[in-house]
């Protein structure tokens, strides 16, 4: 049953505020798309933390990407807003003149922002150290995390797409969205009708093989391109037709075993610097007595949170959980990372004992958390020193800039609401969610959490969420 609390010890609700809450109650009770569904809703005063309205507020529901609110907050608490990932270059050999006799190791420490440009800079540092020839092997070390590549409930059909990428201690990203463990596949029409489409990869690599079964057709023809990677392989097959002179088709596809992918890119970087390798490559742990030659640092956590939260990057969520496990428990696993998440939640006054947390991204359909617990977290984090970084990471309604508006840039477009709503979206099949902060017309700040489960179509959830938030603006 819904529960309205229009007046609490520190919250004085006037008649118009009570009317807004009444309208909200009627919306929840009478919305056709919620028939047969479950709506968990929690509205709090941001100033006092008192609950103003709740509907099934204590019922555990699937949060989808609203779980990222927990991951972001606990990562800031456990690691610090200025925390940086690192990638190291080490050797067990000896440099005599310009010749390094021994193996060269690239040791990943989870950096999801590592790109070809960063690997190029590491290779330049090796060159600057005087290395022209390596009489040894190039070894990738991904032992910073455990060997589990996928969170426990990730479905097989998600594995080949960017939102289901494998997690490794050593990985690489194609651009500044930092979708680690992926390549961008671009399909452009051929120069003439009947020719195959032109395929390009970003970053260019020898790790992924392309099978091109495409055809360029007349400009009136169908644009039907399928890009497929089979499980356990790095073979991407591209099929279908693309009209001549049409815009390119682009897709982010995951690689199988990103450690090898990063190693391939690093080998390219060495070649660019004219460093000759007399040996092979492999994957192994760096010896304890190895000497460090170079280090690359990632952007700080507070900057990484922007693409993580605004673009809802699943890989970042899973990486942060493993990083928390490694830094705080000495084991880069989901199990230990989730233990840290729960410990940090308790420090913030949020009890995780009634939650089911299975990953760091919210992609699991087994995750369960209540709307009241999410709104309580959003209230609690306001007192933390890192709260400005947390708030800055949330999508901003109505702002068309991709890395400001994020997943809310096309929603809540009422000019009055522009910049007034900062919230995390969430979507998995049959689930839609939205939780965050709204500044009302009367300049009061409210916290809200809306978890909609068992929807017949998850697209139906977003208009309901937007109606609720629009109502709250009138509070």
Show unreliable segments.
Answer: 4-12
Our Rg estimate from Cα atoms comes to 25 Å
**What overall form do the CA principal axes indicate?**
globular
Q: How many helices?
A: 11
- The share of residues in helices is 25-40%
Mean pLDDT: 95
CATH topology of the largest domain: Beta-lactamase
CATH superfamily of the largest domain: DD-peptidase/beta-lactamase superfamily
* Biggest β-sheet description: 6 strands, antiparallel
Beta-strand residue percentage: 25-35%
Terminus-to-terminus distance:
22 Å
Could you give the count of β-strands?
21
Q: What structural category characterises the helix and strand content?
A: alpha+beta
What is the level 1 CATH name of the largest domain? Alpha Beta
Q: Strand sequence of the main sheet, in spatial order?
A: 1-3-2-21-20-19
Count of individual domains: 3
CATH architecture descriptor text of the largest domain: 3-Layer(aba) Sandwich
């Amino acid at each position: 049953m819904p529960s309205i609390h229009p007046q609490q010890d520190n919250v004085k609700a006037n008649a118009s505020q009570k009317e807004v809450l009444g309208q909200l109650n009627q919306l929840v009770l009478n919305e056709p798309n919620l028939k047969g569904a479950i709506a968990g809703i929690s509205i709090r005063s941001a100033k006092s933390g008192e609950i103003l309205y709740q509907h099934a507020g204590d019922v555990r529901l699937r949060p989808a990407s609203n779980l990222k609110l927990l991951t972001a907050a606990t990562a800031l608490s456990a690691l610090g807003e200025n925390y940086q990932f690192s990638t190291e270059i080490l050797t067990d050999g000896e440099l005599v003149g310009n010749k390094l006799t021994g193996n060269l190791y690239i040791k990943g420490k989870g950096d999801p922002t590592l790109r070809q440009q960063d690997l190029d800079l590491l290779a330049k540092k090796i060159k600057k150290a005087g290395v022209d020839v390596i009489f040894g092997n190039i070894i990738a070390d991904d032992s910073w995390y455990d060997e589990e590549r996928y969170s426990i409930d990730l479905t097989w059909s998600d594995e080949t797409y960017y939102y289901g990428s494998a997690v490794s201690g050593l990985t690489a990203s194609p651009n500044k969205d930092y979708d680690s463990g992926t390549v961008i596949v671009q399909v452009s029409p051929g120069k003439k009708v009947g020719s195959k489409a032109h395929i390009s990869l970003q970053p260019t690599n020898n790790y992924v093989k392309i099978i091109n079964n495409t055809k360029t057709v007349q400009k009136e023809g169908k644009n039907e391109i399928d890009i497929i990677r089979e499980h356990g392989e790095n073979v991407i097959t591209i099929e279908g037709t693309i009209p001549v002179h049409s815009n390119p088709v682009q897709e982010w596809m995951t690689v199988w075993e990103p450690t090898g992918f990063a190693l391939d890119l690093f080998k390219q970087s060495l070649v660019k610097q004219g460093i000759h390798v007399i040996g092979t490559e492999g994957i192994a742990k760096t010896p304890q007595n190895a000497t460090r030659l170079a280090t690359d640092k990632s952007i700080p956590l507070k900057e990484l949170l922007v693409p993580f939260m605004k673009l809802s990057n699943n890989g970042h969520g899973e990486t942060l959980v493993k990083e928390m496990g490694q830094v705080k428990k000495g084991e880069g696993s989901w199990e230990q990372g989730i233990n840290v998440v729960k410990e940090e939640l308790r420090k913030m006054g949020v009890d995780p004992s009634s939650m089911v947390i299975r990953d760091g991204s919210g992609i699991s359909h087994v995750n369960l958390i209540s709307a009241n617990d999410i709104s309580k977290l959003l209230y609690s984090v306001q007192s933390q020193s890192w709260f400005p970084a947390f708030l800055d990471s949330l999508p901003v309604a109505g702002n068309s800039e991709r890395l400001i508006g994020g997943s809310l840039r096309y929603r809540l477009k009422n000019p009055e609401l522009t910049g007034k709503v900062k919230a995390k979206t969430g979507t998995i099949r049959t689930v839609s969610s939205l939780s965050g902060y709204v500044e009302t017309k009367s300049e009061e700040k409210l916290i809200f959490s809306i978890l909609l489960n068992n929807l017949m179509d998850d697209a139906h959830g977003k208009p309901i969420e937007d109606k609720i938030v629009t109502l709250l603006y009138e509070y």
